[in-house]
Structures are given as structure tokens and as C-alpha cells.
């Protein structure tokens, strides 16, 4: 009979192999395709007396790939960054770019004139100018002060 020295790291390696087999069975082979999506674009919303100004960061896209819908109380932006398949001489390509569809709805706290909204896309930044309704610009609210 041979004497074998106990090594606790062997137990951890065995446990790790068991977990790997478990996850290999649960996760589909095309997991990379399931995780192939773009991040939600960052947004910045500023307000002036006359309008709301919305900026979205959507680099690497063309204006034709963006769909902008402006409602009186929200803005929805969707788009798709399509992948370009290029193969090198050795047949391998490494890419850290994100491709796929995104969709974002930004609620507005002020009603706007959606028929007069304007958009400009330059250097990967989408700028929307959303004019406020005349009711919102001239809205005055009387606050009653209760006396004790």
C-alpha cells in the first residue's frame, strides 16, 4: 500500500471541475451570441426656460441607424450597431467592440411640443432640442400658506 500525502488544494480543484461541468451543461454553446449586445447609451438632460436639451452618447453609429420617437412626456431612442466581419491572413480576429441593438426611453418631467423637436448628430453625440409647451413655460402655481 502506498502512502499519499493529503493536499487540500486537490479538493478545491475537484470542486472547481464539478462546478465547471455543471455550468457547461446549463449554459448554451452560443452564450457569446446571447451576450452580444451594446450598452445603453449615456444620457444628459438639461433644462432652459424654453426647452429641454437631451444629449445621448452613441459613438460608432450612423444617423440612419437611429430611430428617435418624441412624445409629449418621453423620448425613445433605439438603434443598432452592426458588426463588420473582417478576417486577417491567419483567419483570427479579436474585437472588443460591442455590436447589437439598444433601446432607451427617457421620461420627461415637463411637457414638450413634440412636433417641434429637432435633432443633430455629430461626432457620436445625438443632440435633441425639445421645446416646452407654452402652457409649461407660463405655468404659475399658487401655493397657499396655512397659518396656525
Q: In summary, what is this structure?
A:
The chain has 148 residues and is of the alpha+beta class. It is 18% helix and 30% strand. It contains 3 helices and 7 strands, in the order H-H-E-E-E-E-E-E-E-H.
Uncertain runs are 32-38
Radius of gyration: 27 Å
The amount of beta strand, in percent, is 25-35%
Total beta-strand segments: 7
Strand order of the largest sheet: 1-2-7-6
Structure in words:
This protein is α+β, with helices and mostly antiparallel strands and 148 residues long. Helices cover 18% and strands 30% of the residues. The strands form two sheets. The protein has a four-stranded antiparallel sheet, with no helix packed on it. The protein has a three-stranded antiparallel sheet with strand order 3-4-5, with no helix packed on it.
Keywords:
7 strands, alpha+beta, single chain, three-stranded antiparallel beta sheet, elongated
Amino acid at each position: 500500500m502506498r502512502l499519499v500525502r493529503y493536499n487540500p488544494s486537490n479538493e478545491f480543484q475537484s470542486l472547481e471541475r464539478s462546478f465547471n461541468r455543471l455550468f457547461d451543461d446549463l449554459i448554451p454553446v452560443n452564450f457569446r451570441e446571447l451576450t452580444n449586445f451594446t450598452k445603453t447609451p449615456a444620457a444628459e438632460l438639461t433644462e432652459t426656460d424654453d426647452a429641454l436639451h437631451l444629449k445621448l452618447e452613441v459613438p460608432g453609429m450612423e444617423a440612419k441607424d437611429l430611430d428617435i420617437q418624441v412624445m409629449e412626456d418621453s423620448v425613445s431612442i433605439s438603434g443598432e450597431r452592426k458588426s463588420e466581419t473582417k478576417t486577417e491572413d491567419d483567419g483570427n480576429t479579436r474585437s472588443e467592440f460591442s455590436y447589437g441593438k439598444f433601446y432607451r426611453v427617457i421620461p420627461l418631467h415637463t411637457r414638450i411640443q413634440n412636433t417641434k423637436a429637432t435633432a443633430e448628430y455629430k461626432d457620436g453625440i445625438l443632440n435633441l432640442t425639445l421645446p416646452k409647451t407654452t402652457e409649461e413655460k407660463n405655468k404659475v402655481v399658487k401655493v397657499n400658506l396655512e397659518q396656525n
